[in-house]
Amino acid sequence: MNTLELLDIAAGIVPDREAIVSGEQAERRLTFAQLKDRAARLAGALEGLGVRAGDRVAIMDINSVGQIETYFACARLGAIFVPLNFRSRPAEVAWMLDYAGASVVLAGARYINVTNEATSQISREVCRIVIDGPPAPTGWAAYEELLASQPLERPPSGADDDPTMIMFTSGATSRPKGVVLTHASFCTYVLENVIPADVDPTSAERTILTVPLYHIAGVQSAMAAVYGGRTIVLQPQFEPEEWMRFAEQERVNRAMLVPTMIKALIEHPKFEDFDLSSLRVITYGAAAMPGEVLERAIEAFPKAQFINAFGQTESAATITMLGPEDHVLQGTPGEIARKKRRLRSIGKPLPDVEVRIVDEHENDVAAGATGEIVARGPRLMKGYWSRPDLTAEAFKGGWLHTGDLGYRDEDGYIFLQGRAREIIKRGGEMISPEEVEEILAAHPAVGEVAVIGVPDPDWGEVVHAVVALKQGAAASEAELIEFCRQRIASYKKPEKVHFVDALPRNQLGKVLRGELRERLDPRGRGL
Fold it and tell me: What is the average pLDDT across 11-27?
């Protein structure tokens, strides 16, 4: 099944329902019929520019209607959509365009200069299209003018196993890898987990989307919303007060958020000023959620069901889920304590994927033992673009090796223990940064914390914590180290605590541990 059919189905059932309400332009609204038509016109224009099945079409912009239209235009042509991180520097953009072999790049007006500089570093010609803003500069085509083209109405090119997207990993420690996702990567998940559009107006839902569309969580949310006939309330970039205003105004029912976004909302001084009672489902993921923040969020949104969705780009998003029932903190004291412990988990595997936890010899580990999380199923990535060596390494034994470590409890819930490459090895002992972070995060003065390993001549590595205290709070290094010593094995406690104003994070709230390591010298002195 081609992903364009997700849109075709919704447009056939609820053509006049709003598909997108966009914050990029005041009160911009498109119905499903209009979205389908505009995507078809863009497909016709791209074909007129020479784009054919298998060609790569890149895009660099904040969340915009143009991104969603361009994806479905590519799906009709059988072209491969390549979303780029809009925070990338010109040299990074040039590398990604060249690596993917993109023949066309679309960009928001604010990224014209970056794109010009990037394409000047590439030897071959790249067609440039400006999505919005002023008249197109020299050498650029204007997006809206292209949409005057005749719509391309023939059946979509590209079947289940054909590539539809190249999505880049973060590349925190090396060049980013281009993850090749097929039509099946998305359709298998959506058809398994989303109820299709329904003409009954009482079934209509509105989902606010603020996670970047260059990230798998954003794309997955968009695909699910389109097939479900849900109106996408599209926020260009996350800003807490604007998010709350938009959610109240549009009476949104669903939201996909990352933990730092949830924290920013519930701690915002104007949180109580907005009526967010329409929210019924809040899905979170993409980074670790501190237990204290999650419990406060459950209290702050009493009418909402919470879902923890765990996955990665290579798995086409969610492979395990902690469902709404596990977020209901009711029952006997023992049941509530058990549920609070499970809030630290990533739940259980979804029906359409197999998940195992294995040792270095690919053998399943016992319940409670830590190993690498591996997965298998029809919607995993096809591989890494033009890197068969990395693809073979990732799919050792026919299973996708996620690089995440974890363990499964006696009830089948999976708990993360960190990334394999981030595990701290101290004198032969393996220490999970997340375990130490969870302890420190429970200290009343700690606002946020990251734990890293620092080279040590005696132990190989030792534990260092980087802490940002809550505003107005105070705590000493000795106090925090002792706080850990009383709660975990002594070898796991930090050897040193560094205090900072804020942790470096990427757009989705993940702590940039590599940046912290670079800022620490080999002896761990200062930041």
Answer: 86
Query: In the predicted model, what is the mean pLDDT of residues 232-246?
Result: 95
pLDDT tens-digit profile of 248-271?
999 999 999 988 899 899 999 999
**Structural domain tally of the chain?**
3
Please tell me the distance from the alpha carbon of residue 483 to that of residue 317, in angstroms, as a whole number: 36
State the burial class of residue 450 (Cβ atoms within 10 Å of its Cβ: 0-12, 13-18, 19+).
Answer: buried
- Residues contacting 139, CB < 8 A, separation 6+: 116, 128
pLDDT at 25: 53
pLDDT of 26 > 50? The answer is: no
Q: Among 178, 204, 237, give the residue marking a domain's end.
A: 237
pLDDT above 60: residue 280: yes
Structure token digits, residue 227: 């097939």
Contact 191, 9 (CB under 8 A): no
Q: What are phi and psi of 364, to 5 degrees?
A: -65, 140
| 49-to-75, 126, 136, 149, 437 alpha-carbon distances in Å | 16, 11, 16, 11, 52
Q: DSSP alpha helices (H): ranges in 79-182?
A: 90-100, 112-120, 143-146
Is residue 68 within 8 A of residue 35, CB to CB? The reply is yes
Range list of H helices, 63-124: 65-77, 90-100, 112-120
Cβ count near 310 (within 10 Å): 25
Give the separation between CA 123 and CA 482, rounded to whole angstroms.
58
* Contact assessment for residue 388 and residue 372, using Cβ atoms and an 8 Å cutoff: no
The region of weakest confidence among 43-57, 343-357, 456-470 is 456-470
Compute how many other C-beta atoms are within 10 angstroms of the C-beta atom of residue 462.
19
Count CB atoms within 10 A of the CB of residue 302. 7
Q: Quote the CA–CA distance of 396 and 392 in Å, as a whole number.
A: 6
Angle subtended by helix axes 477-485 and 433-441, to nearest 10:
110
Domain that holds residue 466: 431-519
CA angle, 198 then 203 then 205, to 5°: 105
Give the predicted TM-score (pTM) of the model.
0.85
**Does residue 276 lie in a domain region?**
no
By C-alpha distance, which of 72, 83, 69 is closest to 30?
Answer: 69
Distance CA 45, CA 152 (A): 8
pLDDT reported for residue 526: 62
CB-count burial class (<10 Å; 0-12, 13-18, 19+) for 492: buried
CATH number at residue 60: 3.40.50.12780
- Token match 């260059």: residue? 214
CA distance 304 to 285: 16
482/361 same-domain check: no
Are 23 and 252 in contact by the 8 Å Cβ rule? The answer is no
229, 10 Cβ separation under 8 angstroms: yes
**At which residue do the structure tokens 């019924």 appear?**
280
Helix (H, G, I), strand (E, B) or coil at 138: coil
